[in-house]
Write a structure and sequence with these properties.
The structure is a homodimer of 316-residue chains.
Chain A (H helix, E strand, L loop, with lengths): L7 H18 L9 H11 L6 H12 L4 H22 L9 E2 L2 E2 L1 H4 L2 H22 L3 H15 L4 H18 L3 H7 L4 H30 L4 H28 L2 H4 L5 H4 L5 H5 L1 H18 L8 H12 L3
Antiparallel strand pairs in A: 1-2
């Protein structure tokens, strides 16, 4: 990590506008799309965000010697899936959130039916983008399979189902997160492994598939795919740990979404199970391992190293 | 129509069990999928249904000289999209229905969060099924694009958004459907065309894409695709008209879902705008035209003719 020459800010400033323009172009949506539905889709998709997942697609493509431009459809597809999942996760029946990326959530800005349908419409648009734009067809097909698996019942949707369920169970018992640490010390390992299992599926799978799509579009070989997956597994956990830490330590204004909610809901979190200090140490160690996993790519993976460092140090 | 030799019952009895077995096999879903989520997906997907859309895939493939077996993945994919759309349409924030296919709707049998996620997980599974199983890759890609468009913002999701919106507007004005006929006689054509536009997108697009997928898998040419699309446009309307008629004329027990709800909600319907008799006549005429459109396929299209006749005469 000493040799990180590229900063995340530079990467974000150079690639961010390209990603936003590409998302904008793919959501103009012509005849037949009701104006309000299009507006809701664009409201959530184009809301200011860190664009971590599309950046991972593009940086993975670059690490494997591919072009940013050919990877852009895949970058858009993962961001569409991510935006849909945020819209649905925020619904009253799920996490019931009012604020996201510093603005009212989709169902608050529009209405619940429109929010459900905006998510439902972003999902097929992601697959349409891959199928229509990725070349050759065999690569497009492989990308569709990988993205569908990451978003599906065994990964993102399943992780969210388990997460909602775990929160509900703790709610019913009236257990708060800081109590959880004491009460369940004996079952520490069980909770740690359940927590990692939820996050590997809920957050990790989309992070890993982002890297995979970028690499596939760039024609990566199995060794490169495996190295990026090692990086992605660790980055996904770092992402979740820092998310949990920010939920405890940040204010609503800094984060642009409600904070302190994990504890209120009795959700399993890393600081809740490991404590603040050990969570921070664990995240640092994972970043070192993530950077080591992509050492073989040389300077072409500088962007991935800078991004991992950013995820560790981010304050929102 | 005089030369219909195959009955819908025969078709349904021979192909129905094959479709159900194929759907069952594709929703076993291994590691990572929470049991409750899998149960909810299967509850809705495998509920007794007419399987009109997968039958259209298989019958279109047969009309174009293709094999039932190679078209089966596409048949499963359209039924997965259909099942997801029913789950989400039934949600409290949408049509708020308690009964579907004679059993409690998914969010009643499970809970709202699980129902949203079951729909969200069926959607990518449909694309995974196409991408993984359809050969060659170029055909798989074309199938993904076609299905994504049919399910997306400009078609199914958009039609549903307009439908919910139209219902809400009429609710607010306190207008009931039978009043609508009198009040809006002068704007009859506007309403008729809005109604057809909603249904072409909400129901019609999925019916047409079912035929298209079956035909593409069978290697159909442009002339065959166009003929099936003509058939599909008409069948989609017949389907909606008879659905509207059944909502007025049937009992809840016969239909396995709540009836009379369109009028209560002030939804635009064919009997509401054309009256009962003219709606029935219109449906008959459309079936004649649909059968004429597939005349060129000869006896290979007998199944499609039988299905159109069934849709006209069905009582649930």
């Amino acid at each position: 990590m000493q040799n990180v020459t590229l900063s995340f800010t530079e990467i974000s400033q150079s690639l961010g506008p390209l990603i936003d323009a590409a998302l904008d172009a793919r959501t103009q949506l012509g005849d037949g799309c009701p104006a309000r539905l299009r507006e809701a889709m664009r409201y959530s998709l184009l809301a200011p965000g860190k664009r971590i997942r599309p950046l991972l697609v593009l940086l993975a493509a670059r690490a494997c010697g591919g072009e940013i431009e050919s990877a852009m459809p895949a970058a858009c597809a993962v961001e569409m899936i991510h935006a849909y999942s945020l819209i649905h996760d925020d619904l009253p029946a799920m996490d019931d959130d009012d604020l996201r990326r510093g603005q009212p959530t989709c169902h608050k800005a529009f209405d619940e039916a429109t929010a459900i349908l905006a998510g439902d419409a972003l999902l097929p648009l992601a697959f349409e983008t891959l199928a229509r734009e990725i070349e050759p067809p065999a690569t497009a097909v492989a990308c569709c399979v990988a993205l569908a698996q990451a978003a599906g019942a065994c990964n993102m949707a399943g992780g969210q189902a388990d997460d909602v369920e775990a929160g509900k169970r703790n709610d019913e018992c009236g257990i708060m997160n800081d109590e959880l640490t004491n009460i369940q010390h004996s079952s520490f390992n069980i909770h740690h492994s359940l927590l990692e299992s939820i996050h590997h599926r809920k957050t990790g799978a989309m992070i890993r598939v982002s890297l995979r799509l970028g690499a596939m579009v760039a024609g990566a070989d199995e060794v490169e795919l495996a190295a990026l997956d090692e990086y992605g597994r660790r980055l996904g956990l770092v992402f979740q740990i820092t998310d949990d830490l920010l939920d405890v330590q940040s204010t609503e204004v800094e984060m642009g979404k409600r904070t302190g909610k994990d504890a209120r809901r009795g959700k399993l979190t890393f600081p809740g199970i490991l404590g603040l200090d050990r969570s921070t140490q664990y995240a640092r160690q994972l970043v070192v391992e993530a950077c080591r996993a992509v050492a073989g790519f040389g300077p072409q993976a500088d962007g991935l190293r800078a991004l991992a460092q950013y995820v560790l140090e981010r304050n929102r």
